[in-house]
């Protein structure tokens, strides 16, 4: 109860938590001299204490108050721990205060921070009468106001956290520094403290992490059906397997790692894989979760349903084929009641059956029309006596229908009378105007097939390098070392038009040249590129060394072609040419005769044409002339055409697009004589099995 205190040069502290940690807090010293005391807060604990009698406590408080009253200093009674207060204790404390003159009571809770500031401000008002009188609020009313204030501050603080923290990787130290200037942060920390502010931050971060994990989970689960469809599309493979065996089967699939990733640590959502957004492969341990197990079961059910639907489609088609009620032209509405049963409706929608029925009807009608056409051919005498204008009278049509009426092939088209009559009229027109346009064989007409063979090299040009559709273009490789290739390329270009066109036998061809003088294994010196498909190669030499270069280059090129299975490059037409030496004369003792002899031997080895100065009628020491160039290009053009012919004929025989007799007739016209055709055909026929000509086409030809 002393009114003057002396503690010079001692550190001031506000709570015992600061003891021993003074350096962590603001250090203030007690002032020199005596410190006057202006008033007292008389604190009364109203909670239920252990081994404590409140009545005895209240007597002690009463004695203490009597001592304080003697000082003539203002006193405020402060009831503490009201958040755990006993109602009787609070009531007795108020009764004690009422017995004293002007003794005010403030109900507080330091833990809840309720009315603490009010207790001090009440005492200050009693010390300084000039201040306004503080309104004393009961504990529960103050607690309600405090709770509302805290709730509002919490909402604002959570909004601030959500605006600043977007990633679950954020750390409290960095975020708290960012938020310190914000009033939302300051207000909440003032009311609730830094600990609770951090707790709310950690809750928000955890929520962000869970949301991220859930997004990844949904992504993986959405991808799982695709993975199952790709890895185990066959029901027989997994229908009777346990889950463990099914997982082992998945791991054994070649494309397993394309869809799944096996993590060293589990579960997947506790590993770093969850943050690897670039890797969308499914964690394999996800299959152990109920959601994944449900998707696996759905996959099984889908495969079972697909099998059952396929069985229903097959059963329906078999039902159609065996049913005597399904005839050509019968509408679906009439046939449905005869061919449908309850099982069909359980598994497939009616439009599916209608589609199958429509396809089956088309097959029936096409077959019935073919049979009816044969019937008309068998009764050809019916059409002999018609007028030349081929317009039968009504009576004649009646006679035709009467004669054919008993035939089953006639009755089969009973529901398609208009189409049946049209077939009769079309047949009559063909009898009197037999052309490939009116032929009932349509695309199978022999005349049309021969025309197709001649016009398009046996039905179609195959995607083969030798069957280049650019007939008016010649791609030529010029091979030679030490500038020979470039020199000849320049000489040939000088003979071309300004747009690289060259005239051969009065026809204009586009000429593309590719001079090569280096290692042909390098892409820059390759015979063939994505934009250049050679039709032939001119091989130039003027010495033993340049001839060796040509031989090595050709062998390397053919080896590469065999490795790529490129028959075109392996069979490329070659022409070996002896050209002049720069400056003339013999070099290294080499004579013209020895170079010619060596060239002939190499040409025989490479199975190519050899061109020497003597055979061309020119003297040694001159390059080949324009006439020679024209002959060489014409030879390459003929070789290109023959190779196109052979490849097309082989493909046609393979695909069944033509038989041997068809091809022989077409080749006779192309080659000019049967011997030339046989020379081309014999190697092909020896390698390809022949089949009889359909419809007696060979005999007709």
UniProtKB/TrEMBL annotation:
Bilayer-spanning residue ranges: none
One of the Pfam families matching this protein, by short name: FF_RHG35_4th
UniProt-recorded Gene Ontology molecular function terms: GTP binding; GTPase activator activity; GTPase activity
GO process annotations (BP): regulation of axonogenesis; regulation of cell size; Rho protein signal transduction
Highest taxon listed in the record's lineage: Eukaryota
Species per Swiss-Prot/TrEMBL record: Copsychus sechellarum
Gene3D superfamilies per record: FF domain (1.10.10.440), P-loop containing nucleotide triphosphate hydrolases (3.40.50.300)
PROSITE patterns reported in the protein's UniProt record: FF, PG1, PG2
Ranges where the PG2 pseudoGTPase domain occurs: 664-701
Subcellular compartments: Cell projection; Cytoplasm; Endomembrane system
Coiled-coil stretches noted in the UniProt entry, renumbered to this chain: 293-320
Gene Ontology CC: cell projection; cytosol; endomembrane system
Ranges of residues in domain FF: 248-302, 309-363, 365-430
InterPro entries named among the record's database cross-references: FF_domain, FF_domain_sf, FF_RHG35_4th, P-loop_NTPase, pG1, Rho-GAP_domain, RhoGAP-FF1, RhoGAP_pG1_pG2
Name of the featured protein: RHG35 protein
Keywords: Cell projection, Coiled coil, Cytoplasm, GTPase activation, Nucleotide-binding, Repeat
Domain PG1 pseudoGTPase: 468-645
């Amino acid at each position: 109860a002393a009114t003057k205190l002396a503690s010079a040069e001692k550190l001031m502290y506000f709570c015992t938590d600061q003891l021993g940690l003074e350096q962590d807090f603001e250090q203030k010293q007690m002032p020199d001299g005596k410190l006057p005391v202006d008033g007292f807060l008389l604190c009364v604990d109203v909670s239920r204490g252990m081994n404590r009698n409140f009545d005895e406590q209240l007597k002690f408080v009463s004695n203490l108050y009597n001592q304080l009253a003697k000082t003539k200093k203002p006193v405020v009674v402060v009831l503490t721990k009201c958040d755990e207060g006993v109602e009787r204790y609070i009531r007795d404390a108020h009764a004690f205060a009422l017995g004293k003159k002007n003794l005010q009571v403030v109900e507080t809770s330091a833990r809840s921070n309720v009315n603490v500031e009010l207790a001090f401000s009440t005492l200050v008002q009693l010390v300084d009468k000039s201040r306004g009188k503080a309104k004393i609020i009961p504990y529960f009313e103050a607690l309600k106001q405090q709770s509302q204030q805290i709730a509002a501050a919490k909402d604002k603080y959570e909004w601030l956290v959500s605006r600043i923290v977007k990633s679950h990787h954020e750390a409290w130290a960095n975020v708290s520094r960012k938020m310190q200037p914000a009033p939302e942060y300051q207000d909440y920390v003032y009311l609730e403290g830094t600990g609770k502010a951090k707790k709310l931050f950690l809750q928000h971060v955890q929520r962000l992490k869970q949301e991220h994990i859930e997004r990844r989970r949904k992504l993986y689960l959405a991808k799982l059906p695709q993975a199952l469809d790709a890895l185990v599309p066959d029901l027989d493979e997994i229908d009777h397997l346990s889950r463990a065996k099914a997982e082992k089967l998945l791991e054994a699939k070649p494309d397993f790692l394309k869809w799944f990733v096996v993590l060293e640590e589990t579960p997947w959502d506790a590993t770093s894989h969850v943050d690897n957004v670039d890797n969308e492969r499914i964690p394999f341990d996800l299959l152990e979760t109920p959601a994944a197990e449900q998707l696996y079961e759905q996959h099984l059910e889908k495969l079972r349903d697909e099998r059952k639907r396929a069985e229903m489609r097959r059963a329906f088609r078999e039902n159609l084929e065996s049913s005597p009620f399904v005839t050509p032209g019968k509408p679906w509405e009439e046939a449905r009641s005869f061919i449908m049963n309850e099982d069909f409706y359980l598994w497939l929608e009616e439009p599916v059956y209608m589609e199958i029925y429509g396809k089956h009807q088309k097959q029936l009608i096409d077959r019935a029309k073919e049979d009816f056409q044969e019937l008309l051919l068998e009764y050809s005498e019916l059409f002999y006596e018609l007028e030349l204008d081929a317009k039968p009278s009504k009576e004649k049509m009646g006679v035709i229908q009467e004669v054919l009426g008993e035939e089953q092939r006639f009755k089969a088209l009973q529901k398609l009378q208009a189409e049946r009559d049209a077939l009769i009229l079309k047949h009559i027109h063909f009898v009197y105007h037999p052309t490939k346009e009116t032929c009932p064989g349509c695309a199978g007409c022999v005349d049309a097939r021969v025309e197709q063979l001649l016009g398009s090299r046996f039905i179609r040009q195959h995607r083969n390098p030798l069957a280049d559709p650019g007939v008016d273009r010649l791609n030529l490789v010029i091979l030679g070392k030490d500038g020979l290739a470039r020199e000849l390329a320049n000489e040939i270009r000088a003979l071309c038009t300004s747009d690289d066109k060259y005239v051969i036998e009065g026809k204009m061809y586009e000429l593309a040249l590719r001079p090569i003088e280096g290692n042909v294994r390098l892409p820059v010196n390759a015979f063939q590129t994505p934009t250049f498909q050679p039709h032939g190669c001119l091989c130039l030499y003027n010495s033993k060394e340049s001839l060796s270069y040509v031989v090595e280059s050709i062998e390397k090129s053919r080896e590469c072609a065999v490795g790529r299975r490129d028959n075109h490059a392996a069979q490329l037409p070659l022409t070996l040419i002896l050209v002049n030496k720069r400056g003339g004369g013999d070099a290294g003792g080499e004579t013209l005769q020895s170079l010619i002899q060596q060239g002939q031997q190499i040409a025989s080895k490479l199975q190519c044409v050899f061109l020497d100065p003597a055979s061309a009628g020119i003297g040694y020491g001159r390059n080949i002339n324009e006439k020679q160039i024209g002959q060489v290009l014409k030879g390459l053009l003929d070789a290109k055409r023959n190779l196109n012919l052979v490849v097309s004929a082989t493909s046609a025989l393979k695909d069944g697009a033509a038989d041997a007799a068809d091809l022989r007739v077409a080749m006779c016209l192309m080659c000019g004589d049967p011997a030339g055709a046989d020379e081309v055909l014999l190697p092909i026929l020896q390698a390809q099995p022949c089949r009889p000509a359909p419809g007696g086409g060979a005999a007709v030809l």
